[in-house]
């Protein structure tokens, strides 16, 4: 009996080791596959030339820019809303049924499939508000997709600030909002930055929410036209904009480009590298912001 | 340690002579349904130090926090608290003006994560003081008053988080003083500090009493005896005895006070 | 003196600041609330149009598997039976969660019981990287690697439930793992030492004490994994075959709710039956997402250890 138990123990722990190794090997394979097949396809030309929808040799310049532009716009729209909502949940929300309802709503939103969010964006933004397939539609759809997570990260970061800091502000006769903005928020910013960078990675790789909002075409734009209202400007938010992730999807489902898998593997590698950078840098920037915010190196002003 | 049952209705509370800065009438505090203090009626004289002593959980800190409405949103407070002929325990009251006039220093030093200078200027600026010379003056004045000036005058622009515990606590006192309040509430300001820092804080308090009315919560009886003019003893949410510090420590009239002072419980 | 008395009873700049601050944050949270309500409302009304406007029978929709909403079928009406997609969606979801859970539990045990320090250090980044890989990249690798493999081994096109399950297995693995880790960490330390001091082997301790105590948490983790698998669109769409047919084997081309939505929404005209039928698929997705949420809440209510 005793010996048996020991044998089973050995067997079980061996199995755990084996399963864990399989997972690690899967990851190594995935990253290895993307980087090995993809890196050789990445060249300066690949990154800076326009894509082709029929012939080989297309690049990803516009898709790459569109991904970045959409990311920036999404963060610009979603960060203020998330800040307000996170502050509400952390500072103002009372422990009652309304708060429970709001929290449930946020949970529901965060668990919605991104394709559903994309279709809602299609229905409301593209069709009802007639924004068409555009960067703006895409950015708003991504905002919906991003809001629950970013709100939670803001809420958590604010709740981690010691209560004593709030009391210090309030006891000096400062209003609650001044205390939040001037005392609590600076201490929460490192956590918020980490949250923003992590969600940036998610946004950058998202495609399902964009297929029917930002669209699946990348019109040729002029990178010298800085007027966002000009139809050919790269900054015009009303033009359709296929992103890198959507491009990969499109090449592999409807594409007729002969070198689809080469472009896809190159684009996948670019996507993965950018996301890796986001993931690795999130903590670094968080720590950096903490040093800034706690004022250890602050210079005298005024 | 078991506490003897004292008759909680048997108490001795005096009204100090002279000008009264702050007075409470039948103040009760409730955390939900649980009552924390019972019918507390105390008068705090101007330019004196009054100490609130008692075992932990006796309600002294809870009571202190009513005096500048720091219990808002945490507990329900009934009764009247009179300050400058205004009952400050009313809904209509402007708590921001009140807290500017009645400052508070907490048990654990809580300087802002800003520079030493900013710690003092921050609230002033938010309250509309813009003149840089005034701001600089206030920084120096309040740091001097808190006996911290000499130690930090050369590093005003370094982070306040780099100060020692005792320095940080004196910075918090300076930060409150900079608001030029009337009354200073201190909630066990030295309990987290070493003896040397404690002595410095006590010295500071004796200096400050010339210009401010001070109410201090402490569980350290020697501290109360050293610095305060009047002492109130809290027991299970009731004030058992309130009188001149010298009297309460040498001739306690209530059994509970006597037992507490002689170290039988608490 | 009187000046202060007056000030004490009058609102000041701070009072207004507070009202404004409170209001702004309320508007933000209200926006999110309205957004959720709007999503539920619009997708529900759009999704119900198939039944209310086009008078498709609800029973036919859920019980039949012939899907050709744009053409008239043998009985003179378009056929709108979503059963094949529903079955495939559930099949890939359940299979991938069942496949992933043993791996996730092994990962979680490794990180909390077997090598807490080293395991955490190595496996935490593994989890984060697996989460970080975008779904189109998973789909692309599935297309490039899995499909040819399946084709060689089983014949046929290589697409279908099997490659979709494998792709989803990797995608839900990090979700289930990280939540299982939380569940195991919530089991009090004394449980472990008590078991060990009674002479239990480490595996007995893990299996009989830790895993048993963490069962509700692990179930919750599985549900979250399933929610992710059920809603995943692109990675599945790239390897499933995209033929609305009842799956006959694990390697026959078929379609899920999400894959059908992804490929067809752009090919139909707003307001027509083929389009409305797609919105009904979206509604099914939405309802299932809510159902997963409710199940999580129900498990949470019974769980012994709350976070």
From TrEMBL, chain B:
Give start and end of each ABC transporter domain. Answer: 22-261
List, alphabetically, the InterPro entries matched. Answer: AAA+_ATPase (IPR003593), ABC_transporter-like_ATP-bd (IPR003439), ABC_transporter-like_CS (IPR017871), P-loop_NTPase (IPR027417), PstB-like (IPR005670)
**Domain of life according to the entry:** Bacteria
What's a BP term from Gene Ontology annotated to this protein?
A: phosphate ion transmembrane transport
The record's Pfam families line, in alphabetical order, gives: ABC_tran
User: Can you quote a single GO CC term?
Assistant: membrane
UniProt GO MF annotations: ATP binding; ATP hydrolysis activity; phosphate transmembrane transporter activity
PROSITE patterns referenced in this protein's UniProt entry, alphabetically: ABC_TRANSPORTER_1 (PS00211), ABC_TRANSPORTER_2 (PS50893)
Q: Which UniProt keywords apply?
A: ATP-binding, Cell membrane, Membrane, Nucleotide-binding, Phosphate transport, Translocase, Transport
| Nucleotide-binding is among the record's keywords | yes
Q: Which NCBIfam families match?
A: 3a0107s01c2
Entry protein name: Phosphate ABC transporter ATP-binding protein
Organism (species): Fructilactobacillus fructivorans
Q: Which gene encodes it?
A: pstB
Automatic annotation (TrEMBL), chain C:
Q: Which residues cross the membrane?
A: 20-43, 82-110, 122-149, 161-184, 205-227, 277-299
Q: Which PROSITE patterns match?
A: ABC_TM1 (PS50928)
Q: Its topology with respect to the membrane?
A: Multi-pass membrane protein
What CDD domains does the annotation carry? TM_PBP2 (cd06261)
Keywords from UniProt, A to Z, are: Cell membrane, Membrane, Phosphate transport, Transmembrane, Transmembrane helix, Transport
In this protein, which residues make up the domain named ABC transmembrane type-1? Answer: 86-296
Note the superkingdom of the native organism. Answer: Bacteria
**Which Gene Ontology cellular component terms are annotated?**
plasma membrane
What GO molecular function annotations does the UniProt record carry, in alphabetical order? phosphate transmembrane transporter activity
- Which GO biological process categories is it annotated with? phosphate ion transport
- SUPFAM superfamilies hit by this protein: MetI-like
Subcellular locations according to the entry? Cell membrane
Give the record's family classification.
Belongs to the binding-protein-dependent transport system permease family. CysTW subfamily.
Query: What this chain does, per the record?
Result: Part of the binding-protein-dependent transport system for phosphate; probably responsible for the translocation of the substrate across the membrane.
Return the protein name.
Phosphate transport system permease protein
Origin organism of this chain? Fructilactobacillus fructivorans
Upper classification of the organism: Bacteria, Bacillati, Bacillota, Bacilli, Lactobacillales
